[in-house]
Design a protein that fits this description.
Layout (H helix, E strand, L loop, with lengths): L1 E4 L10 H12 L8 E5 L3 E9 L8 E3 L3 E9 L2 E7 L4 E7 L4 E5 L6 E5 L3 E5 L3 E7 L7 E10 L9
Length: about 160
């Protein structure tokens, strides 16, 4: 997992797909339309959505195998829960058609990350996460973009 400010994305030499994702992110305005955006076919795409944050007990931990998530809030704020996949038990087996697996969480302890405009969170296949969580006890309206990058396109050498 990576948590950082959008302006620091250049510090991560993860290749051309990474650059394309952040170039797209830099073009988005808070009033961007809620829909799916194709950046590079099915290898890199983004989904913009608006919703109200929810309590932690209403959300399951999830993880993906085919895509890395880059999540950035455009307006509002939310919390994302995080745990390594290896610390959880499978609740709903991996569905390759949706690239998602859901998990049981055996206790209430997990890392909580507050995400607000200007911040991004990167979630790799080893990162189970609970998105769309309320900060505190009051639901908030949020607009968020989730950019999906095929894991095979990221490069530690920046290629």
């Amino acid at each position: 997992m990576i948590v950082d400010r959008i302006e620091n994305s250049i510090a991560y030499p993860l290749g051309k797909a990474w650059q394309a994702a952040f170039e797209f992110l830099s073009t988005l305005k808070p009033d961007v339309e809620d829909k799916k955006y194709h950046i590079q076919g099915t290898d890199i795409f983004a989904m913009v959505s608006s919703y109200k944050t929810r309590p932690a007990d209403a959300i399951q931990f999830e993880a993906h195998r085919k895509y890395v998530d880059i999540q950035a809030v455009m307006s509002g704020s939310e919390e994302i829960g995080w745990l390594p996949v290896g610390e959880l038990l499978t609740k709903q087996p991996y569905d390759a058609s949706k690239d998602i697996e859901f998990y049981h969480h055996p206790n209430a302890s997990y890392t909580r990350i507050n995400v607000s405009p200007g911040t991004f969170v990167v979630l790799f296949p080893r990162d189970a996460h609970k998105p769309t969580l309320m900060i505190g006890n009051i639901p908030e309206c949020v607009k968020k973009v989730v950019i999906k990058i095929n894991v095979n396109l990221l490069s530690a050498q920046g290629g």
